[in-house]
Each structure stands twice: as C-alpha cells, then as structure tokens.
Amino acid sequence: MTLQEEILKLKEQYNAVILAHNYVDGAIQDIADFSGDSLELSIRAKNVKAPVIVFCGVRFMAETAKLLSPESTVLLPNPDAGCPMADMASASGVCEMRKRYPDAVYCAYVNSTAETKSQIDICCTSGNVENVLNSIPAEKEIVFLPDRNLGSNMGAKLNRKMTLWDGCCPVHDAVTPDHIRAARALHPDAEVLIHPECRPETVAECDKAMSTGGILRYVKESEKTEFIIATEYGIMHRLQKENPGKTFYHIDPPIICHDMKKITLEQVRDSLKYGKTEVVLSADVMQEAVKPIEKMIALPAK
Ligand code: 13P
Ligand code: SF4
To answer: 174, 179, 172: which is closest to 197 by C-alpha?
Structure first.
C-alpha cells in the first residue's frame, strides 16, 4: 500500500477530514479533502462537522479550526509548524496597547495566536480585510495587528489612517521591488500578482495584490495566459494543475515559508494513526477568541 493509500484508509476509518493550506506541499494538497486560503479554510472548519480534522498548515490556522469546530479533535501533524508573524503579537501586548488607545477598534489579522485573538475586537484575513475594515465606522480609530505591511497596503487603498503593530511575515517582507522588476524584464507580457503581506513599495511594482484564494480565482477567470507569482511557492501547484493552458513564473529568489513545508505525508499518516498532535486551548481563551472570528465570518460577503 502506498503512503497516500494508507492515509486515505485511516481517514475513512476515523471519519476524518483533511484541510490543507494553498502553501503546503502539492502531494499533501492532493490527498486533502479541501485546499484553500485562510478564510476558505476557516469557513470549511466551521461547516465540516467531522469528529477529526487534520489541519495541514501552520498552528494559528489549526487553532482557528479548533475555535470554529470545538467538538472536533483538531490535529496539527507537525506541532513545530508555526508562523513567525503570529508570534510577533501577544495578548499582553494588546492589553498594553489598549491603555494607550482605549477607544480604538482592535483588528487582528487571522495570522495571530488564539491568545491574542482573545483580546481583540474583530479578525480579518487577506481575503476579507477590505470588507472588515469598511465595517468599522469611519470615525473610529483602528489598531491593526500584527502585519504592518497588510495594514499599510489596506490603509492606503481605503484611505484609512490606522495605528499599525510593528510585525510582518519575514518571508513576504523579504521580496523587494528589484525582484519584481527583474521578473518583469524576463517576462514582459506577464501580469504580476502579489500577496498583500509584501511591503507597499514592492506591491506598488505589481498589477494586483490578493489573498492566495483571490489569486487562484483571478487566474482562472482571466483571459491572460502568463503570470508572475509573488507569493509562497506552494501556490504554484494548484495554479499549474487548475490552469494547464497558462504559464506561471515564480519570482527569483523563490518565496518559501519553511513552516508550511514542515508538514510531510508521513506526519499526516502518523497524525491519523496516533492522534498527533491535538490542538488544545484553554476554555477561557476559546470562549473569547472565537468571538472576533465569528464576527468576521458573519459580515455579509462583498
Ligand atoms: P492567505 O489567507 O492569503 O492564504 O494567506 C495566509 C498566509 O499565511 C499568507 O502568508
Ligand atoms: Fe506566516 Fe508568512 Fe508563513 Fe504565512 S508565509 S504562514 S505569514 S511565515
């Protein structure tokens, strides 16, 4: 029996559902029930109603699944798969900030820990950030955390002043305007699609900034045939698989999130076989952290 067959058998045996982020290895996306961006995965986790969810992504995503599906056992196949940006903000840091900006609305990118989420007002993902920020009354001050790049990019787009936390995704922050210019010089006919976790000056060199799910949808609907992709390399798998007639160039040097690459097929099998590693959150954190996520999901989609 191949490893893939073994996983599918165990999945059936435990009535489990496998969710995978668009950045994990293609082989893992291929055995998953669903691959998607953070927003799509949150919605799936809420609706899935399976006794076991194997979450192939990083810790904050598995925590979000647990918050939205508290009755399910949520497994993160590699407990070391974290997100450095999520660790750049803390619940105590938010409490300190609240002393300085007591009347502000605290909006946290979903890339934050469950503990941090327990102290904020509303969550957003890169797929719904515009909608979430527009739902906050114009006269309200906003503190946005932890991603200063996503915050600046959206603040500029929506003409909204925000107090930004000084965090970022080290993987996307390292992409420079020169990397984009070099890719354009090589492929002048290609459209350049970037993730809004990149710096504003880098985003300014590109044609469109979108979530990973947004990029996948846009490419499918576009009449263009060549694209330069400025986000984590794992997205190339679905882009190529779902659009066989189109050509994709990843930028150089490649954008790789080593945390997303920590999950292997062997670990997915072992997570099902031995129940490794269960996401456990305290009842207090769960009770508070789910509120800003539910608030985000309840907003009418635009
Ligand atoms: P998406 O929600 O766009 O998939 O992004 C998640 C992420 O971690 C990007 O680095
Ligand atoms: Fe975190 Fe960046 Fe990796 Fe996304 S790509 S999981 S933001 S470190």
So the answer is: 172
Kindly identify the ligand whose nearest atom is closest to the C-alpha of 38.
1
* Tokens representing residue 18 in the block: 């496998």
Q: What is the pLDDT of residues 238-259, one digit of tens each?
A: 999 999 999 999 999 999 999 9
Please list the ranges in the chain whose pLDDT falls under 70: none
**132-176 pLDDT tens trace:** 999 999 999 999 999 999 999 999 999 999 999 999 999 999 999
Superfamily of structural domain 171-250: NadA-like (3.40.50.10800)
Q: Look up residue 274 and give its two tokens.
A: 């031995």
Q: Is the pTM of this model over 0.70?
A: yes
Ligand 1 site residues (CB inside 6 A) read: 22, 37-38, 111, 125-127, 169, 195, 197, 211-212
CATH of 86-168+289-298, one of 3.40.980.10, 3.90.950.20, 3.40.50.620, 3.40.50.10800: 3.40.50.10800
Place of tokens 């945390």: 259
**Average pLDDT along the chain:** 97
CA of 76 relative to ligand 2 center, distance in Å: 16
Distance 153 CA to ligand 2 centre (A): 17
Superfamily of domain 3-82+260-280: NadA-like (3.40.50.10800)
Q: 78-99 burial, b if ≥16 CB within 10 A, otherwise e?
A: bbebbbbbbbbbbbebbeebee
